[in-house]
Amino acid sequence: MLTDSMDRVYQRPHMLTDVVTHYCPGCTHGVIHRLVAEVLDELNLREKTIGVASVGCSVFAYNYFDCDFVEAAHGRAPAMATGVKRVHPDKIVFTYQGDGDLASIGLAEIVHAASRGENFTVIFVNNGVYGMTGGQMAPTTLPGMKTTSSQTGRDVVTMGHPLRMAELLATTSGASYVARRSVHNPGHINQTKKAIKTAFQVQQHNLGFALVEILSSCPVNWDLTPHAALEYIQEKMIPYFALGDFKVTEQVKAQCK
Q1: Residue 188 lies in a domain
Q2: Is residue 151 part of a domain?
Q3: Which end of the chain has fewer CB within 10 Å, C or N?
Q4: Is pLDDT at 227 greater than 70 in this prediction?
Q5: How many domains in the chain?
Q6: Which domain holds residue 155?
Q7: Regarding beta strands 49-53 and 92-98, do their DSSP bridges make them parallel or antiparallel, or are they unpaired?
């Protein structure tokens, strides 16, 4: 219990409901939820936000964010967000999607939403596997990485190369802000929060499509301890999925601080 001489340094964001999440121990979805919630609280957007949940580990996001939410079919979150935003242009709309959802079955949806410059925000969580369905190879699985469907490691000759979604989407004319960040240590968590804030400010200023790709851990499906999974992000994922801003328009630079 806090006394008069103690300062509160952290409290649950108002945007998050007071419930226990279903995520596995060491999973960084919870960290990303907190960052999104803090940004929406700080921008005073809670009462006007509509989230779109995807299919995957994040399917129950609507239980954790205290705002209006809708559930999309697998891969169709960008299409649903497009409809919601066009019907309610005064609302703040965001999708929360994993790599299996966004980069595989939903690849066409996200590419065309970016190309059209749809004015919503995408939080894209990349952990390199299909987490919910048993750890199968995803479009973002690293070369040589073992999964339940690539048990000797991903062979790029027969299985193709991992998709770098941030770089791909940055090439579309309608995208205004595309960035990749990580949550493997406190410093990078702070940088990720800043990127998420920018992505929502882009929408506030009606500047078009914004996406933040976030490298996340999956200790259970990677068969690693939580600590080792964070090291895996640093040592294996970041060399392939470089962190940084891949597209920032001049309007975003001028209006989103």
Answers
A1: yes
A2: yes
A3: N
A4: yes
A5: 1
A6: 29-255
A7: parallel
